[in-house]
Each structure stands twice: as structure tokens, then as C-alpha cells.
Amino acid sequence: MIHKVGFGFDVHRFITGNSVILGGVRIPSEFSIEAHSDGDVLLHAICDAILGALGEGDIGDLFPDTDATNKNRDSVDFLNEVLTLMKSKQYSLCNIDCTIVAEKPKLMTYKQQIKQFLAQACSLPVDCVNIKATTNEKLGFVGRMEGIQAYSVCLLKKD
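User: That's the sequence. What structure does it adopt?
Assistant: C-alpha cells below.
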């Protein structure tokens, strides 16, 4: 059986607003995310992890911010297209593990909802999705609450 590991990362700047979208879940916040699409850093990191495992570049290769069709696009669409590509190459997801790094918003009460959404979107059992949230201990741009970042790793298996 063939297995492949992928790693993904994304970062976005905060702007004044009232919510952020993380893992397909809208979360009330004193910030919004500046981005060409909806700025869901978590879904972008997951897409990059899957694309990396497939050897298919990154999210910017498939969905460039120079393409007007991606303006304000829902990142769930990106995930669905990446999952379709994965299936066309006869791979399936075994699991995903993610870390969101932000001082705010506090994510403890949203982690389970994000996990449930991702499990359903990726056709995975809930116990095959893990969401971690941490701060940057007030260091760097994340610590100054200028932005947010997310990391993801995934394991694929050949069908």
C-alpha cells in the first residue's frame, strides 16, 4: 500500500471586521481576514497539505489571486476541487492534523465545530481530524494581533 504525507501552511493579515472563517466555520471576532478569497487560512493549509502529498504544487497554482473568478470565493470550493483532484489520482485521505496560531479570536469553543465540519467535508471519521489552537505568546506579527496562521499535515493512501 502506498502512503503519502503532505504539509500545508497559510497566513493572512487581519483587518478591521466582525468575523473570521476558519475550517468553514464563521467565528465572531473583532477582526476579519484580508484575502483575495474568503481568507480561510485553515482550509488553505489543508489544501496545500493535500496538494503537497499529491505532488501538485500549492493552492496558488490552482487558484491564483490574479484570477478574478477566485475573488471572494468560498474556500470550501477550493477544498472540494482539491479533494476531487485527489480522488482522480486514486488517493483518499487517512487523516488531517491542524494547528491554528492566533492571539484572538479564542478558539476553544469552536474547535469541535471546526472538526465536525472538516470531517464531513473530507468524508473522514471525526477521530481522523484533529484541530489544535495556540497563541504565539505575544511574539511577532501574530502576537501583535496583526494576522493569523495555520499549519496542516495529512496522510493519503492509494486506493
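The chain has one domain: 3-158.
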